[in-house]
Amino acid sequence: QLQLVESGGGLVQPGGSLRLSCAASGFTLDDYAIGWFRQAPGKEREGVSCMRSSSGRTYYTNSVKGRFTISIDSAKNTMYLQMDSLKPEDTAVYFCAADKVRQTPQGMCAPHQPRASYDHWGQGTQVTVSS
């Protein structure tokens, strides 16, 4: 079965940290562009961070630069999003995704892309930043 399974969301105070995990089964993440997206209530889905492990290149949306880090553990076929210095505006449902056609991190994270145009999506995990 081809799927992405997320874990690691939760409630955290401002300034805290969380690490999201996304484990793939049935396919190899190294062969895909991968990324993390988020959607807050009433807002469009946003590409937070994307990468293509074959090139090592990464992309971060401006609001998370210096605070979030995307990574992949090829042996575990799992990708991660380390989120530090969290802010209330980071509150959203976070989704991982993988796509074989998109060749660049920027293309993977590009806005206004139909959800169905990506090969695989995780189920989503809630991140709430609040005191």
What would you say this structure looks like, in words?
By secondary structure, the chain is mostly beta strands. Helix content is 3%, strand content 47%. It has one helix and eleven strands, in the order βββββββββαββ. Strands 2, 4, 5, 6, 9, 10 and 11 form a seven-stranded mixed β-sheet that branches. The protein has a four-stranded antiparallel β-sheet with strand order 1-3-8-7, with no helix packed on it. A hairpin with a 4-residue loop joins β5 (46-52) and β6.
Write a concise keyword list for the protein shown above:
131 residues, mainly beta, 7-stranded mixed β-sheet, 4-stranded antiparallel β-sheet, 47% strand
Summarize this entry quickly:
The protein is mainly β. It is 3% helix and 47% strand.
Any idea what the radius of gyration is? 14 Å
N- and C-termini, Cα separation: 39 Å
Strand percentage lies at over 45%
Q: Tell me how many strands there are.
A: 11
SSE topology:
Elements: E1 3-7, E2 10-12, E3 18-25, E4 33-39, E5 46-52, E6 57-60, E7 68-73, E8 78-83, E9 92-99, H1 105-108, E10 120-121, E11 125-129
Parallel strand pairs: 2-11
Antiparallel strand pairs: 1-3, 3-8, 4-5, 4-9, 5-6, 7-8, 9-10, 9-11
